[in-house]
Amino acid sequence: MNNFGFGRLRLVNPYQVAFREAKSAVHAGEILERAEEYTTLAEAIHDCHLVVGTTSLGHRELQHPLRTVEYGARQIRKQLGSNRVALLFGSEKFGLSNEDLSYCQWLLRIGTKDSMNLGQAVAVCLYELTRKSTSAKPEKRKRAAAAELDRLTALLTEVLTESGYMHSTGVETRIRRLVRRLDLPAHDAEVWLGMLRQIQWKLSRERE
Question: What is the pLDDT of residues 7-24, one digit of tens each?
């Protein structure tokens, strides 16, 4: 991160033994001292407008758009002028879980035969982000932040349950993925929230 000019590090439940040892890394001390720790992924990305996960594919069934690191980095650079972007990495051993990936709008993959270790993957992704590109023109629209998308996911889940449309449990993860694939601007997210609140109010009146 230090080599490529990035300084904002957020950690979700870091392994404290390794984290304390890492603080002695050359030139990385300040970044790690300022690192923000969170207990959940939702808290860590609450103010981010674009969340991009990283994956080595493996045998998992992906339900997100998948982009190469070269193309994905160009898309991310377009957002950096007007939106806060989170690039999400999993643990060295297991990577990101399906639950983690449900918080992402799309996924990024480095085109290697086998998976890379965490440090190598971070370095390649950040290198691509800092590479000069004439095609990456900043996008002006402001995206909905992750916290807004979480509110929309929760309200949509409630409305679908109250309407009788949704009967099975454990579907909130699928709804979260669906909402993030919509790629909503901040204004549109507020409109959807307003419509869903009106539907919920109407359903409550009918039950009285």
Answer: 999 999 988 777 766 666
Please state the φ and ψ torsions of residue 4, each to the nearest 5 degrees.
-105, 10
Please report, in angstroms and rounded to a whole number, the separation of the first and last CA atoms in the chain. 57
Query: What pTM did the predictor assign?
Result: 0.70
Read out DSSP for 37-84? EESSHHHHTTT-SEEEEE---TT----S-EEEHHHHHHHHHHHTTTS-
Environment class of 160 (CB within 10 Å of its CB; exposed 0-12, middle 13-18, buried 19+): middle
38 φ, ψ to 5°? -135, 155
For 84-125, write each residue's pLDDT tens digit.
Answer: 999 999 988 888 998 999 999 999 988 887 778 888 999 999
- Partner residues linked to 37 by β-bridges: 11
CA distance 152 to 175: 10
Residue 14 CB contacts under 8 Å (≥ 6 apart), including other chains: 37
Residue 54: strand pairing partners: 108
Helical (H) or strand (E) element with 118: helix 118-130
Listed in order, strand segments (DSSP E) in the chain are 10-12, 36-38, 50-54, 66-68, 85-88, 106-109
The residue whose two tokens read 């409109």 is: 191
Distance of CA 158 to the CA centre of its chain: 23
**Which residues lie below 8 Å from residue 15, measured CB to CB, with a gap of 6+?**
none
Torsion angle of the four alpha carbons 100, 104, 106, 111, in this order, in degrees rounded to the nearest 10: -40
